[in-house]
Design a protein that fits this description.
Helix content of chain A: 25-40%
Shape of chain A: globular
Number of domains of chain A: 3
Largest interface: A-B, 130 and 131 residues
Strand content of chain A: 25-35%
Oligomer: homodimer
GO biological process, one term (chains A, B): threonine biosynthetic process
CATH architecture of the largest domain in chain A: 2-Layer Sandwich
Number of helices of chain A: 14
Number of strands of chain A: 18
Cofactor (chains A, B): a metal cation
EC number (chains A, B): 1.1.1.3
CATH superfamily of the largest domain in chain A: Dihydrodipicolinate Reductase, domain 2
Binding site for NADP(+) (chains A, B): 7-14
Largest sheet of chain A: 6 strands, parallel
Strand order of the largest sheet of chain A: 3-2-1-4-5-6
Family (chains A, B): Belongs to the homoserine dehydrogenase family.
Chain lengths: 431, 431
């Protein structure tokens, strides 16, 4: 069993406690041992908390930092102090540290990594950039054979939400900001986000890894989005562009890097231009791999907890256990006939009265409801019929298609193709 | 120094040898020791090879598999045999194995992982799915705290190229296939790709990891794209869809999974619908992280070598050395003034003769050439002018803007925003 201590029980801290509890079984199976939250640092013992925290709260950081049974300290307080001092003490006490703190890592990374190395423990910070999007570990491991030429990304969800609202809803900046605040995407003092400072810290972390050189946030040139007007967004659209707050860094010659955060118009075929709302994306260009992109929710309680808990698992595994086969379940592969989807069907039939009704009848008998039917492209006495169904079972569809094939006025069922939609939020769900 | 042996010197093997040589310095810095290619298995000693392979060739697999100084065996032969037997022997001889072989891993993964665990060595296969796109390690590590609900992806570049050609160039299937063959994207016998078998193997590997259950390719329901006609693509377009060969797997209830490869129409706002040409993308949905997407070149010499060499580095590092700070360079952050970009500028000026020429003069004196100028939105005697520049230095632009601000007929320079284009291949390069 691995004992951990958590510093902070705000949004992310609560997410971490809940995720460890909700996915206790898979985490234990994948890690090979259990993760136990031993103590949690809070400021106020009387505040109402998640029931999973019962009996674990303390107001003394040293209860965690000096506990010899705690192997891993998770820092989710945010802000520079006291987080920095706590992390230092934890590392000095030879505990692995997992943190989501972009401010501490971007400003004090050098000192902290030296401390971790000296103590022979790990310092993990996957959650500090891009929330739950895997980016730090992929850059350090999966792309390690590459010389990185450039990184560019949408690293701040608040500003991306505001720009998306301006573009799609024709809201002006102030209205879009108010909407972001109403939804909890922006703070009451939003300057850290809209002036680009939050993106600059994340870019400092990413470019330090990409170019193997220490880049602190004060070295990043920053322009925010506070001066972007609706008119600019409209012109951009007319010109075929989308305005995004782009954080980018690239190697210049042998010994220089360019590092900036600035509003940028992206052509519609640019991979970052399609990133909407609070989503983040990071494009990395390596000399061998070419361009790879990582996309997902860049913030939020559970996405950030996903990255923190993955780091906890890696810290627990460190030097102890290699990941072998992870197929510990025996799931059954279901017959695809029982799967559901929407389907597009194209067929050729005689262009005469009653044919469409016979075809519709075959669908109806097999419980297939149709979203739309188009009859067109008549050549001689032959019509082409295209339909799209609602969600239906594949088995039912196959039965209907067989009946339709047997209809004497149907020449040929040409094609049957699955159809996927995305729901209104732009990324979730489909069939 | 880590000695490796490579089985096979085809396209990927040559890429691995070249990448290890070209990026020798960064690889050594990041890993902390040198990777030395000791021996390479080939079939024909007389064939002309990369000069980096000189003096290392052998036609005897056992020269590598039985060499006690070789710690890591890299298998890039492809195909089921003799690759499988060689991998087994390497693992039995307690050597780490790195492979790009999707056929062997998808069909014989269980046996090989058990063998690796028994021998206490690692079996790495990042390159077997998605070429250089980080996906195996991110799923095993970064998303380890999640219950995976669904994965869906475009896992075969050949079919995606054909479908993109059909959609964008209105080529029919046969012409698009011939074009793919001419460009080397498709084999002379293309059935493995176009019938969906290649995608099925990759999906078997991904879904085994995602759902912690062994899924072999024969369990995957497969439809290929060989029956898709240009007419279908056209109708799909009219209906607002793009046709893609989608590989998808999802958990159904507690003990079942649905695993299929089939042509699917995706609505234009679906994240996978924008994946063009030979690119691959994998969308993973976890209960905590939500949806994350990984995008990049799914095949090719250097992208695949990028994944293989990353695996070699991880195998070399295994249990030996934690990654601490990797900032071993001291790069200078360049003044953003010397960076270049295209810029959009919007300003308000008096609507009278000579004003535009004065503005253009200020640009010209500072070496700023203009891509386009729009004058519009005249209110009373005021005109709004929008211009987009070619690639220019930011310092020059700032000087020009200052001169323009001082012009007496210019009321206000409202905004200056960077513009990024992507070149015609859809993803590479920009400003």
């Amino acid at each position: 069993m691995i004992n951990i201590g958590i510093l902070g029980l705000g949004t992310v801290g609560t997410g971490v406690v809940e995720l460890l509890e909700n996915n206790r079984k898979v985490i234990k199976q994948r890690l090979g041992e259990e993760v136990n939250v031993k103590k949690i640092l809070v400021r106020d013992l009387s505040k109402k908390r998640t029931p999973y925290a019962d009996g674990k709260l303390t107001v003394q950081a040293d209860d965690i930092l000096d506990d010899e049974q705690i192997n891993i300290v998770v820092e989710v307080l945010g802000g520079e102090e006291p987080a920095l001092s706590y992390i230092k003490k934890a590392l000095q006490n030879k505990k692995h540290v997992v943190t989501a703190n972009k401010e501490v890592i971007s400003k004090h990374g050098k000192e902290l990594f030296e401390l971790a190395e000296k103590s022979g423990v790990g310092l993990y910070f996957e959650a500090s950039v891009g929330g739950g999007i895997p980016i730090i570990r992929p850059m350090k491991h999966c792309l390690a054979a590459n010389r990185i030429l450039r990184i560019s990304g949408i690293l701040n969800g608040t500003t991306n939400y505001i720009l998306t609202q301006m573009q799609e809803k024709r809201r002006n900046f102030e209205d879009a900001l108010r909407e972001a605040q109403r939804l909890g995407y922006a703070e009451s003092d939003p300057s850290d986000d809209i002036k680009g400072f939050d993106a600059a810290r994340k870019l400092a972390i990413l470019s330090s890894i990409a170019f193997n050189t220490r880049i602190t946030p004060d070295k990043v040139y920053v322009e925010g989005i506070e001066n972007i007007e609706l008119e600019d967004i409209k012109y951009a659209g007319e010109l075929g562009y989308t305005v995004k707050l782009v954080a980018s860094a690239r190697k210049v010659g042998k010994s220089e890097v360019e590092v900036l955060v600035a509003p940028t118009m992206l052509s519609k075929n640019h991979p970052l231009s399609a990133v909407r709302d609070v989503y983040n994306a990071i494009l990395v260009e390596g000399d061998a791999v070419g361009e790879v992109m990582f996309f997902g929710q860049g913030a939020g309680k559970m996405p950030t907890a996903s990255a923190v808990v993955a780091d906890i698992m890696d810290a627990a595994r460190e030097g102890k256990r290699r990941i072998y086969c992870t197929c510990y379940d025996e799931l059954k592969v279901i017959d695809v006939g029982s799967s559901t989807s929407r389907f597009y069907i194209r067929l050729k039939a005689k262009d005469k009265p009653g044919v469409l009704s016979k075809i519709s009848g075959a669908f109806g008998r097999n419980d297939i409801s149709l979203h739309m039917v188009i009859q067109k492209d008549v050549k001689g006495d032959v019509a082409e019929i295209v339909t799209v169904t609602h969600q239906v079972h594949f088995n039912n569809l196959k039965k209907a298609i067989n009946e339709i094939r047997d209809l004497k006025d149907v020449e040929r069922v040409i094609n049957v193709i699955r159809v996927e939609e995305v729901s209104s939020n732009g990324v979730h769900g489909d069939n």
